[in-house]
Design goal:
Oligomer: single chain
Helix content: 10-25%
CATH class of the domain at 66-230: Alpha Beta
Number of strands: 8
Strand content: 5-15%
Order of helices and strands: HEHEEEHEHEEE
Strand order of the largest sheet: 2-8-1-3-4
Largest sheet: 5 strands, mixed
Length: about 240
Amino acid sequence: MVKVLVSVRFLLVSFYICVQNELKGEVGSPGLKGEKGEPGGGYYDPRYGGSHGAPGVPGMLVFPQLHLIALNSPQTGSMRGIRGADFLCFTQAQAIGMKGTFRAFLSARLQDLHSVVRRADRDHLPILNLKDEVLFDNWDAIFNDGRMKDNVPIYSFDGKNVLSDGTWPEKMMWHGSTSTGQQHVDGFCETWRVGDRALNGMASALQSGSLLQQSSSSCSSSYAVLCIENSLGHSKR
């Protein structure tokens, strides 16, 4: 009886070992060794030193300012209205890369010259020429018997000195205003639409240094027309 039990136990153990071997399967062949990877991209940790780069270029400070610039050629009193004059100022400013908005330095039937610049900008922003030289300390100074700074010329958009260049044989400029910047009655060539010899517009001699001298001139005359920047462009090309 004992021999029978031992034989049965031996058979069971042998069967168990065979089953385990079947489940394991064959041992696979070793895999190929992978290639060595590239070094990882690190980052600079200031705790471990390292040199600093060169300092950057400092930013340019831009101060608010307004420019007063002449059209590139003289005009008669016929400028297709005040909007036509404004358009000439706008297009010539754009042509040289000026970013601000420019309007004609003129009074008209529905416009006082003094009001062309915003009230908030009238008493503190300097008025500069094309080359950023100060002509007047501020807009209000022009209407308070102000005179241009000595030896500071007015330039046209294409860089000509209006006082010395032959493009302007007569050193006069249109403004159509009273001395305080209001529209002058019948002094603006029918709102700058007429170049008739029989009509008159208000003008000023540039040599006087005053932009609002009261000189009544024939609307057929060809005079300088100035343009004032009335929005801040910080904007030289």
